[in-house]
């Protein structure tokens, strides 16, 4: 097993879980963060903010100095909130000029750019150039960070422009409990990974009122159809919906209270929009992406009533208590499938 030097940008749950997996695979892992307390915690063998008093199974190092973190790393992983990607790309760019022939970039940030409605791999391309885009691999799939950290069996997908590099990254992560499977759909993987979070908010909201698997299944069915419409308009491949990054990730995010987006949706009914946003301390990707989803639906003139309704809730235009009632009306108006 080759010992690679790997830099992970981020010290959150996902960054730490992936760092632990890569370290267990025999690599030397450095995490970069801006929170001194988290950095010190990681250097002492813990990330108590996300994993309590569970000690790392292998050694991780962390620093607030970006130059030190990147060092002579062969791989650089972006594992930060999507809202921080712009500023972090600008910082990282300064340290990449002498690494054009070897460094491989890995993106695990989820989202679609709010201003341009472009997938994040294209944002990385616009910031760092075509050379690094050709050496970029994006990972996504059904994976709660806590379960990856606990070494529960997990399967996700990886995609990128260069299939050889994609396979290389897959092998970097693969173990007897963690598997990355290559997929040839850069757009689809990222669109599904983003929009499923907004659907999870819708499902969580409905479950707070009905606590019904029947209702959840109905909303999921219609919501998945809407995601597929949006993805195809953005040039995703139709079959990607049946992959781990498609239906697998949608099911995970829309069916468990471990999902921040699902829990956020439940809180919308219990506490209202304003209070839920104010009290929420963790990143909720679905809330971050709703404006982007609205722009895409409008741009392509897509009929997406479930998405349009949850967007109205998040904009304060529809009372959360009226959301499920509106969904019921949509169910009753469904026509026979041809």
Brief sketch in words of this structure:
With 338 residues, the chain is α/β, with parallel strands linked by helices. Helix content is 54%, strand content 11%.
Report on the structure:
There is one protein chain. With about 350 residues, the protein is α/β, with parallel strands linked by helices. The protein has helices at about 15-25, 35-45, 50, 65-70, 85-95, 120-130, 130-135, 145-150, 165-175, 185-210, 215-235, 245-255, 260-270, 275-280, 285-300, 305-315, 320-330; strands spanning about 5-10, 30, 60-65, 75-80, 105, 135-140, 155-160, 180. The chain folds into 2 domains: about 5-185, 3-Layer(aba) Sandwich (Rossmann fold), CATH 3.40.50; about 195-330, N-(1-d-carboxylethyl)-l-norvaline Dehydrogenase, domain 2 (Orthogonal Bundle), CATH 1.10.1040.10. β4 (about 75-80), α5 (about 85-95) and β5 (about 105) form a beta-alpha-beta unit. The longest helix is centred in the middle third of the chain and has 25 residues, at about 185-210. It is globular, with a radius of gyration of 20 Å.
């Amino acid at each position: 097993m080759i010992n690679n030097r790997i830099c992970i940008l981020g010290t959150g749950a996902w960054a730490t879980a992936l760092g632990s997996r890569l370290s267990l695979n025999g690599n030397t892992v450095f995490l970069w963060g801006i929170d001194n307390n988290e950095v010190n915690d990681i250097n002492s063998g813990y990330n108590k903010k996300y994993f309590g008093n569970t000690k790392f199974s292998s050694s991780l190092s962390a620093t607030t100095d970006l130059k030190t973190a990147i060092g002579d790393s062969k791989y650089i992983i972006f594992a930060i909130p999507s809202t921080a990607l712009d500023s972090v790309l600008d910082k990282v760019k300064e340290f990449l000029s002498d690494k054009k022939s070897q460094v491989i970039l890995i993106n695990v940030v989820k989202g679609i750019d709010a201003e341009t409605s472009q997938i994040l791999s294209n944002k990385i391309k616009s910031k760092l150039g075509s050379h690094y885009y050709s050496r970029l691999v994006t990972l996504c799939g059904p994976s709660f960070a806590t379960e990856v950290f606990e070494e529960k069996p997990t399967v996700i997908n990886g995609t990128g422009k260069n299939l050889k590099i994609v396979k290389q990254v897959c092998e970097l992560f693969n173990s007897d409990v963690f598997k990355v499977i290559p997929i040839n759909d850069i757009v689809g993987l990222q669109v599904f990974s983003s929009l499923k979070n907004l659907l999870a908010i819708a499902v969580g909201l409905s479950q707070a009122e009905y606590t019904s698997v029947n209702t959840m299944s109905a909303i999921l069915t219609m919501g998945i159809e809407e995601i597929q419409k949006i993805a195809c308009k953005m040039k995703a491949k139709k079959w990607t919906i049946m992959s781990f990054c498609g239906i697998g990730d949608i099911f995970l995010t829309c069916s468990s209270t471990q999902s921040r987006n699902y829990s956020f949706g439940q809180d919308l009914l219990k506490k209202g929009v304003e209070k839920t946003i104010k009290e929420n301390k963790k990143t909720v990707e679905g809330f971050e992406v709703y404006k982007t989803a609205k722009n895409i639906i409008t741009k392509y003139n897509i009929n997406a009533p479930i998405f349009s309704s949850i967007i109205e809730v998040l904009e304060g235009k529809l009372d959360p208590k009226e959301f499920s009632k509106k969904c019921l009306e949509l169910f009753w108006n469904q026509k026979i499938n041809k």
